[in-house]
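Purpose: get a first structural picture of the assembly so the mutagenesis plan has something to point at.
Setup: two entries, given in the order below. No constraints added.
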Amino acid sequence: MPANEQVDRRERLMSLILALLHTEHPLTAEQLWERIPGYAGIVNQPSFRQAFERDKKELRRHSVPLVIETVYPTGTPVDGYRIDRKRYYLNMPPMDADELSALRLATTLFRVGDTSADEGLFRLGGLEPTAVDPDGTVPLATVDTVNGLDELFTAMAARSTVHFSYRGIGRSVDPLRIELHGGRWYLAGHDHGHDEMRRYRVDRLESSVTVDPPGSFTRDPDQVVSGLDPPWLYPVDDEVTARIAVDAGHADWAIQQAGGWAEVERRDDGSVVLSMKATNHDALRWFVLELLDHGELLEPPELRQELITWLEKLA
Amino acid sequence: MSRVSASDKVGRLLAMVPWIAAQPGGVSVDEVCARFSINAKQLRSDLEILGMVGIAPHSPDMLVEVAVTEDWVSIQPQWFDRPPALSAAQGLAMLAAAESLHGVQGADPDGPLARALAKVEASIGVVVGRDVEVDLGSADEAVMDSVSQAVREHTQLVISYYSHGSDKITERTIEPWRLFAANGYWYIDAWCHKADEVRLFRLDRFASVTSTGNGATVERQTLPDHGPDLYKPGADDVKVTLMIDADMPWVPDRWTTDSVTTGPDGSMEVELSVSSRAWLERILVQLGPRASVVNTTDDAAVDRSAVARRILERYRR
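Result (structure tokens, whole complex):
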């Protein structure tokens, strides 16, 4: 009967976790079959195996750190299971009520994924009352997660090298940074194949992510991974310093668009000249044309001429 | 009330049991239910199960001790005495949320959120800023401050706003109602006195903003969710099909398109609804010779060359 099965399943899972947490030695599937009430009632091997596989999957879903080691109870090697106590338990000083409350409010205003934040809050002490009614609060932003993101984040925290396919090529990467920008998730890390820092869009990974054991790379504490650049700074072309004149009426808006990447010279008539480095000439042209006839690319002369030729072809 | 799915009962139990066990003398059923988004019936059912969990050989003294009355519950802290560690998904959700809120409200390093964030960072072994960066949209700090204050305090602002579609900067008096981020940009829904209706504004298009010093005069209405596509095609929109060459695949990413079909050579056919001819002409100039309009429901031709000539005049002065 479905209701009973559900009741048994909860008890079975909790008993399984309890057994695997508190055992001194890895337990084999046979031993679990005998000891866990939810399994002992199962008569035949295939049914037990099926139930055990389902339960292991459930444990993984809850991020329970299941460890599998080879043991020799009767001389022949078999899998032995236990939960890594050190990694299972929360290692954190308790949250004060105001800290928990602040965290709850933040995760109500900014939702990443669907239920993860609440599940996390449960582990930290539950939903602490907040000054503002969370149920009545409209989120400021809801961000979807993407496949692979959790594995990459875990790998980054554990210093595990990851492997995945991207643009048709297999990559081995030391994950250093997870970024959200322009509504997209990115991984920045050291690409072994190219022996340099690379950035990948997580929603464009072409395979699932495989993860090496923790500590498979060491991180240089002084290494700085620079933030996501604007399109005109993607490393495509030779670096140039561009100077762009913008009319007074559109100066403030243009400065906003340059987003802090430009030095600004203000002229007496209110117009400005923006100076910015660019390593992607196509993206620079896109930026300049965004300004329509309110902006003009003054330098460098080669790119200015290229832009004129571009416009002449369309005129 | 609960955002937790039914299948997460065990996950919730693993978190809930250590907390109940840590309350000296136990805790009220009501408080457990509020804290863990659970109703009393489900709680009793889960606790009943818990009473049967134990280690082989399951003699009574090995079982988890649970005492539950009509309105009180206590658990003997023998097993599950500490909650599980945060998972990657949970940790990331919290770090991203905390960093985002700091970005909007400013970060008080001694405040409760900063302290909570530091604890989460330390337990996961990740540092926000260095290892995780969440940028919901670029918006000038001063603009963000003014706008969020106006939303909170129900006040008026005068803004100089660049209307992208019509390539015009206009001054407007607005009353911000709702601030939100979507698709990598910050937006507000605000009452616009110039349009005499609610309008959507993108914060990175604010050329300037000042407070009028006045309170809002229009009563706020409940606004529907915008949904994933912030651009809503209007009845008068023209449907356009563009053909874009292979080497510019990053372009249509943030447009609201009806369809994008990629050919074997990498070129793209993009169908979209366009409300502003000026917008389309600018896009065509930016895309350049690598793009063309192959179909349009508008009889009047889109005049890319006129825009190109207008811009060229600057270069010929």
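The longest strand of chain B covers residues 168-182.
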